Structure prediction request, 257 residues.
Amino acid sequence: MGQDLVVAALAVLAYMTVLFVVALFKKDNSIVDIGWGPGFILVAALTFFFWRGTTARQVLVNALVAVWGLRLAIHIALRNRGRGEDFRYAKWRQAWGRWFVPRSFLQIFLLQGILMLVVAFPVVLINRPGADAGLGGLDLLGAGLWAAGFLFEAVGDHQLRVFKRDAANKGTIMDRGLWRFTRHPNYFGEALMWWGVFVLALSVPGGWRAIVSPLVLTGLLLRVSGVFLLEKKYAGDSAYADYIRRTSAFIPRPPKA
Prediction:
């Protein structure tokens, strides 16, 4: 393991431990979701300054991570304000009983810290020295994928926020805007952004190894923490079942008649 990865791992461990202590004090593990984006900014900044990054690719990727991480943190903080603990964490709080504290640290905060390091791996590779300083075709493709993903995530989040603010929509399913073409435009957007970062990493030595990042993140969003958990919440809802029948779960496509 490179020195930069060791530094990043220790920093993430300290960061997630602090978040865990704050969560215990607030009795709300949802804070880990707010801390997800800024954790990537921490990893990017540490590895960038560790190697004294100067190339255009390094500056570009670190800026993209900062924009994404800040927007996501602000969005989740505003969304969670006054709502209490997210239903997922509240369920685990009840199920884990007296083992709640150690299991929270290990299965929520420490696990998310490990996943953060895996997903941020292409950023660590890009911030290392030895790559060409100039930007090429792969960089333009990667930045384009990232931009498309960012729009899907940001616009999807905004559309859902506006929908929920309207009292007339209470009890109905959001199937407008981007949500007409995919049931999870925000999750699709996040995955697409990290596929874009992976493409950016292909221009640096050993960059192909960064494919672990988008593969792991996409798998998590589809099978573990994203689509799977959220849709489990709507099991038995006939309106949502009809929405599932009409609308793609992930990759956008025209809805079925």
Remarks:
- The CA atoms of residues 85 and 91 lie 10 Å apart.
